[in-house]
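Troubleshooting: if your tokenizer reports a length mismatch, compare against these two reference records.
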Amino acid sequence: MKRDEATVSYTMSRIRGKDTSIEVKLRKALYEKGCRYRCNSKYIFGHPDISFKGVKVVVFCDSEFWHGKDFEENEKKILSNREYWIPKIKRNIERDNEVNEKLTKEGYLIFRFWGGEIEKNLDKCVTKILEGLSSRGYKFAK
């Protein structure tokens, strides 16, 4: 199945790294629960999507494609520009592991959610974060 290069290029150019739909959905749900957070903090290694620096809790909202969910199985589904995308996604997986390792050493509690998890089980994701925040003594706004 050959894909039109212009269509693929346009589609990829529309994908954003910040304020994605899954991030916004999770942030709104957390805000409604009284959470006040920072977005994409440049002061925390890995620039987490959502951070609670005072209690050392960070949240990453990872899309399945960019962060390589089930990559061994899905690698063969990449049909165009394989010599670019496969190393790029493999490096993203490595980088996520490096970020997790460094933040864990610094005492952070890390939550990583796949986009599908946020879409299908938003309440469950929010509950996990709230429990983590409570365990760290976070003071909720409401």
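Reference record two:
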Amino acid sequence: MPRPIHFEIHAADPERCKGFYSALFGWTFTEPPGMAGYHLISTGSPGEPGIDGGMVRRMGDNPDSKDPTPVIAYVCTVGVDDVDGHVAKALSLGGGVAVPKMAIPGVGWLAYVKDTESNIVGLMHSDPTAA
């Protein structure tokens, strides 16, 4: 059964947002080499229940604009065995594509789909050869 493996926060001001979550929950942020502007979020110690996440600068216009709609939510990413197949299934169930499939170099393949309520869900297939 597929499970959530990662969450992502999209922020207009990542530094301000990092300060908020650091103060509120004690989360820590690191920018991995080769991923400028992306911050990994550690939400706890290894072995504790829960998942870690990431933060990226919000893409698109501000939340009050009509088009394109920026991400204004946490994106929960679910590990899948076939991104294309799950995108197709989401479409067949009345969903839509929010961000087309793309390579995350050295990590895998990622796409964002919208559910029937326009909530965004990430789909990730691990593949260290993705480029």
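Descriptive notes for reference record two:
- The chain is about 15% helix and 35% strand.
- Helices lie at 14-25, 83-92.
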